[in-house]
Write a structure and sequence with these properties.
- By secondary structure, this protein is an all-alpha fold.
- 54% of the residues lie in helices and 0% in strands.
- Helix 2 crosses helix 3.
Length: 168
């Protein structure tokens, strides 16, 4: 009987946990506010730079000022884009303008891959980004370099030790 009650309790707990609304992958996220962006940046700096409370407050104020300026620039750019779109509407025919709108909306979705996506940059997943490429699997050194045409390859080095008699 106890096992049955434990099973029912576990089932109810799991069901309650799954019933909580979770953000879905397909739904667009709401952009963070200026204060949230400044707080995230200041928190990151606090962790990375080991800031004290007084320093954190001053850094937060600076980050807030920067985020507000960035927000104003973004609004100005959006306003300029809308003006450009209205001007283009007067120049282009209907089909051209429709294509122009498609191109403009697609521009926002073409972003650079995340910096931690090592496969995109030709690095193995476990490799460190220390200024160079990770060695290819199966090699102990870096990638092979073809130096056949390199003029430095034709240099000869005299490795015989010089004796005192030869120098005189």
């Amino acid at each position: 009987m106890k096992k049955y009650l434990v099973m029912v309790a576990l089932t109810l707990a799991i069901g309650a946990a799954q019933a909580q609304e979770q953000p879905r992958q397909g739904e667009p996220k709401e952009p963070p506010t200026v204060e949230e962006m400044a707080r995230m940046q200041a928190d990151r700096m606090k962790r990375q730079l080991l800031l004290g409370d007084d320093q954190y407050d001053r850094v937060y104020k600076l980050c807030l000022k920067q985020a507000e300026a960035r927000q104003k620039r973004m609004e100005q750019m959006k306003k300029e884009q809308e003006e450009m779109s209205q001007q283009m509407k007067g120049v282009l025919n209907e089909m051209q303008y429709e294509r122009y709108e498609q191109l403009q909306s697609g521009k926002m979705h073409r972003r650079m891959p995340a910096r931690n996506d090592r496969r995109m940059w030709g690095m193995r997943p476990g490799a460190q980004r220390d200024g160079g490429m990770a060695p290819a699997p199966g090699r102990s050194k870096g990638p092979a370099i073809d130096i056949k045409g390199d003029p430095r390859r034709n240099m000869t080095i005299d490795r015989t030790p010089a004796t005192a008699a030869e120098e005189e």
